[in-house]
Amino acid sequence: MTALVVSGLGKAFGGVHAVQDLSFSVQERTVHAVIGPNGAGKTTLVNLISGIYTPDQGTIRLFDQEIAGREPQDLARLGMSRTFQNLQVCMNMSAVNNVMIGAHLSLNSSLFAGVFRLPALRRADVECRRRALELMEFVGVPASENLMASEMSYGALKRLEIARALAAQPRVLLLDEPAAGLNHTETAEIELLIRRVADEGTTVILVEHDMKLIMGVSDHILVLNYGRRLAMGTVDEVRRNPEVIAAYLGAPV
After folding, report:
1. CA–CA separation, 141 and 236 (whole Å)
2. Which of 18, 91, 94, 130 is the residue whose CA sits 20 to 30 A from 252?
3. Distance CA 198, CA 37 (A)
4. Is the CB of residue 10 less than 8 Å from the CB of residue 220?
5. Residue range 14-21: mean pLDDT, rounded
6. Mean pLDDT for the stretch of residues 116-120
7. C-alpha dist (Å) from residue 40 to 20, 205, 223
8. Which residues are within 8 A (CB) of 76 and not within 5 positions of it... i.e. 6 or more apart?
9. According to the model, what pLDDT value does residue 111 have?
10. 130-142 burial by CB neighbour count: b if 16+ within 10 A, else e?
11. At residue 62, what are phi and psi to the nearest 5 degrees?
């Protein structure tokens, strides 16, 4: 099944066309990477898909439902979640509470239920905390209720963000440079985690500069250059594409 279809997408900032007439599709339960030189439009594309930006033209369909221009919270309800290149962690909160934030859309948050602490709300809170601890274990951080985010390493915090995104139970997960700033060991852990997420049934759209990670984990790769689609295919197809080699290495085609 096709999870995401982008058709004729375009976005300009002033006179700069960050994304131009871009079309591609993403199959369900795969890892679909987006790569390209600096300024190729990768982050703009992720921001368009996730509702941060509204496209100037084109369509974006999530499981056959048009989502272009929809608010991020609406997309979360439709099954899309994302992480950001720069850490978005509440450092003054516990790790488990950070993860629980990701599940807020599925909790009963009515004022009446909250004020009177109705049994159903208490049960939902207990279940949410249990699930958050499970996700912490899944991503490879200590499943402790007492662990503060401020006590965690940078690499662990990157995995914690993925746990929080998974708490929303997404069908599609967008990862914006999850290995940025990590050492080789931490990057290898992220690679294994991304593969586990996809194997569990979540479609992953991955923006990343680490080509070793990209080549090791991706099922398909979209290559952007100056906001346009330069190439798309399997790892082997992209690796051998002369236009991709030229864009990255500056070699003549």
Report:
1. 33
2. 18
3. 26
4. no
5. 93
6. 58
7. 10, 16, 9
8. 105, 168, 170
9. 43
10. ebbbebbebbbbe
11. -105, 115
Smallest CA-to-CA distance from 12 within 242, 190, 226 is with: 226
Contact present, 46 and 176 (Cβ < 8 Å): yes
Q: Which residue has the tokens 């914690």?
A: 160
145-161 b/e (C-beta count within 10 Å ≥ 16 → b):
eebebeebeebbbbbbb
The beta strands (E) that lie in the chain are given as: 2-13, 16-27, 31-35, 57-62, 65-66, 80-82, 172-176, 203-207, 220-225, 228-233
Residue 30 has pLDDT above 70, yes or no: yes
The length of the chain, given as a count of residues: 253
Q: Could you tell me the pTM of the whole model?
A: 0.89
Q: How far apart are CA 2 and CA 127, in angstroms?
A: 32
Per-residue pLDDT averaged across 167-183, rounded?
95
The residues, any chain, with a CB within 8 Å of residue 129's CB and separated by 6 or more, are: 96, 100, 145
The predicted model gives 29-36 an average pLDDT of: 96
CATH number 3.40.190.10 is the correct assignment for the domain at 1-79+170-253:
no
Burial class (CB in 10 A: 0-12, 13-18, 19+), 253: exposed
| Integer-rounded Cα radius of gyration of the chain | 19
Cα–Cα distance between 165 and 99 in angstroms, integer?
8
Per-residue tokens: 186: 């931490």
pLDDT mean over 243-248: 83
Q: In the chain, where does the domain assigned CATH 3.40.50.300 lie?
A: 1-79+170-253
Residue 115: pLDDT above 50? no
pLDDT at 38: 85
> Quick one: pLDDT at residue 103?
85
